[in-house]
Amino acid sequence: RKDVKGANATIAELFPQEAVLGPDADLDRAVTQVSEELIDDYPTSDPRWAEAVPEDAANFTNSSIIILHQLDNKSQAHSMYIDFLRQVDLFGRLGCVQVRGILMATRLLLCEHAEKLAAAIALKNYHYKLPDLVTSAIQIALNKREDDIPSGLTPADVFFREVSQIDTIFECLLEKEKQVLKDTSVQSEEWGKIVVDVNNIIKDMLKAAIQDRQSKTSLYKIRDPTEVEPEYVPWTASVGVRTTIVQQHEIILKKVYPQANSKLRSIVIEQLVALLDCFLDGYVSQLKSVDQPEHQERYNSLHVEYEQKRSELLLPLLLLKQYQLAAALAEKYCDFDILVQLCEQTDNQSRLQRYMTQFADQNFSDFLFRWYLEKGKRGKLLSQPVAQHGQLASFLQAHEHLSWLHDINSNDMDKAYRTLQNLANTETRYFAKKKTLLGLSKLSVLASDISDVMLNEKIEEIIEQECFLLHQETLPEQLLAEKKMNLNEMPVLSAPQLIELYICDENRKANEYDFKKALDLLEYIDQAEQVDINYLKLKILCKALLRDGWSSSEGKDDPIEASKDSIFVKILQKLIKEGVQLSEYLPEVKDLMQSDELGHLKYNPYFEFVLKANYELYVFRDQA
């Protein structure tokens, strides 16, 4: 009667503005119930339904008796219902309801009802074209639901009346398809036709629903929602629908494609792409619904799931060399991994450059560089066109082990030197690598255009570091074998660690050169290492004294002659030759004799006599 004023009064009485609304509120339940009853309305004008209509059924006076017309009428009536909800200001007050075990925005459930009407119309059109297939699937669906078919009515009458359950047809179509594939010869026309037909029905039903959703976005939108809406899982992305598409993906690729001729292959693979488009579209809608700070954790986990499913479904297209079809989906759904693999397999660098521009705002270049890095394709990473050098340099800032190569390639030798020097300074895991990095840094700085003064300073710094590494490089081979060490696999050793190796008992052939190296290494000990350098020096000298058999010298009158070939004396002679002031460098005799590091010698009078004599000759003469 178009009595909007009377309708508003009734609405105000039933659902007052001050009523507290929440999930599954009376308003939401009432609105969705009417919507569902409308799309599931009985065709009371059809005399065959006279005895099958429940007494409590809603009657929306559906005057058509032709099923397709009934569906069109329901679609029009549903649109009028939505308009009515807006006119009486109920639409903006809608919250959420329970659907398929989860909360869903009521407005989106209303949209779902409209979408199912669109899908039902698509199915009914196929019922005219493929009556045997659709009727068989409908019968399977009704059997699963244990729905009786009233006398005088057909399975189609019963099934198409209940539009809210239209999605149950999908698994039934697959069930019929599997049976035909099993019972039919591969050579028969029916074998391939059943797959093509099932693909078309599922594809066109889903596309009809998705297009209906997209065309009515503004109609079902609430301008200022009062609360954050729950996650949205479209019915076209429900577990049942996703399972159907995944199963069909497997049937096509594992059963049909390998045995099909080229024409059938072309048809089913294009149909599969359309099904995958629907599958991925559902994930995108779901992701958009949780792309908010309040749902960040859920968004992250769902995005990981989406990426995994996307890869699983698209990768087989690459393996079948269906490059154009794979590219179409990968571009639409931003599967950069598939796009990079595609370009690599087809050696299409121009396409890769196009993607860098096309997806610049989504950091495609960074993804590509990281992909090259992970796959060990460093040559391709570093041979990017000049146009990409800026982005590559930015990416390589976090990958210094490669950025110096790009710097050299770009002829920026000073930057290459700084990077290599930094890498060498921080390298502790491999001695051989640190040595190589230092050598490369020296070559880079020599090739740079810095001033001669700065060049000399930097070269001196590098030489000093190389001198330190030389102590590790010249460790005795016998010692390394004894310790089961390999220079190519050894970590970078600190000065105290090298000292311990040079003076340890396992260095059986140690001579004055080894102990002199140990003393030289004291200069490389940093204060931050918290090492007692004087104690370490004392320990080195004690270990050197212990290397000689002092008991064989007992009884000799001349202590200098008796000890002239000892390692200790040869060390003193080397120190003097280098201009070292022994009186300042060596510890006191009493400190040596009292050290526990001296072992049994500290109690040997003859040894003490020889030691003091050598101190008098070599140390105290400096003070004379």
Would you tell me the overall average pLDDT? Answer: 88
Structural class: mainly alpha
Overall 3D shape: elongated
- Strand order across the largest sheet: 1-2
Radius of gyration: 43 Å
Estimate the helix proportion, in percent.
Answer: 55-70%
Main sheet summary: 2 strands, antiparallel
Calculate the terminal CA-CA distance, rounded to whole Å: 129 Å
Tell me the number of strands.
2
**Number of helices in the DSSP assignment:** 30
Unreliably modeled segments = none
Strand content: under 5%
Outline of the structure:
This protein has helices at 4-14, 26-39, 67-87, 106-129, 131-145, 155-161, 169-183, 189-215, 239-256, 262-289, 296-319, 323-332, 336-346, 349-358, 364-374, 378-382, 389-396, 400-409, 413-426, 431-447, 452-473, 477-482, 495-503, 512-520, 533-545, 559-563, 567-577, 582-585, 589-594, 605-619, and strands spanning 96-99, 102-105. By secondary structure, the protein is mostly helical. Residues 287-526 form the Nucleoporin Nup133/Nup155-like C-terminal domain.
Keywords:
single chain, 624 residues, mainly alpha, two-stranded antiparallel ribbon, 1% strand, Nuclear pore complex protein Nup133-like, mRNA transport
3D structure, described in words:
With about 625 residues, the chain is mainly α. Helices cover about 65% and strands about 0% of the residues. It contains 30 helices and 2 strands. A two-stranded antiparallel ribbon has the order 1-2. Strand 1 and strand 2 (about 100-105) form a beta hairpin. Helix 7 (about 170-185) runs antiparallel to helix 8 (about 190-215) and helix 18 runs antiparallel to helix 19 (about 415-425). The radius of gyration is 43 Å and the shape is elongated. It starts with a helix and ends in a 5-residue tail after the last helix. The model has no long low-confidence stretch (mean pLDDT about 90).
